[in-house]
Design brief:
- The protein is elongated.
- 74% of the residues lie in helices and 0% in strands.
- The protein has nine helices and no strands.
- The relative contact order is 0.05.
- The model has no long low-confidence stretch (mean pLDDT 76).
């Protein structure tokens, strides 16, 4: 019970606190009725930040209604901080996408993928050649398996089982006759 009353008091206190105005691109675009991508472009440059700062200082009375502790000197510092953060984020994203920062497998996969996109006819011919090689390799291996069985002597067992096919009707279904190996008796 005590925990619930403490949580209610904390929630009530949090609701009484005014929302602090932090000049994020979302809040500034909503406040100035501009598109967010335009605000981001302006925040990335020093001149753009100065323009946004001047516009926000002109509307300081409106901001003070939202945040009574609003300070225009602090706003300039916050705008510089947001602008620097956006610039660092943009630089980081470019670094992550650069081929030097990617691993070997990622770069090789991107090269193969881009080759297939840029050269569809050559890619089709390569796929057809791989399919033909697969079929030819399977046929070659099938012949090679027969030769291996003949060399090992297992082919004789295959011939013996094919010779015993007529016995299938003599022996009842499901009954396995005992294996008799010559010379074991």
């Amino acid at each position: 019970m005590e925990k619930a009353s403490v949580e209610k008091k904390l929630n009530a206190a949090a609701q009484e606190l005014p929302a602090k105005f932090v000049p994020t691109p979302e809040k500034v675009s909503g406040f100035l009725n501009q598109r967010e991508d335009e605000i981001v472009v302006q925040l990335e440059s020093v001149e753009g930040r100065k323009k946004i700062f001047d516009t926000l200082v002109e509307r300081e009375a409106d901001i003070k209604k939202l945040d009574p502790s609003f300070d225009s000197a602090d706003l300039k510092h916050q705008l510089d901080l947001v602008g620097d953060t956006l610039t660092q984020k943009k630089k980081f994203m470019e670094d992550v996408k650069s081929p030097e920062k990617q691993g070997f497998l990622r770069r090789s996969f991107n090269r193969v993928k881009n080759f297939a996109k840029n050269h569809p006819v050559a890619s089709l011919l390569l796929v057809l050649a791989l399919a033909a090689a697969g079929i030819g390799g399977a046929a070659y291996l099938a012949g090679g398996i027969e030769a291996l069985l003949a060399k090992v002597g297992i082919s004789h067992l295959a011939a013996a089982s094919s010779a015993a096919e007529p016995l299938g009707s003599v022996v009842a279904p499901g009954v396995v006759p005992p294996l008799i190996v010559p010379g074991s008796m």
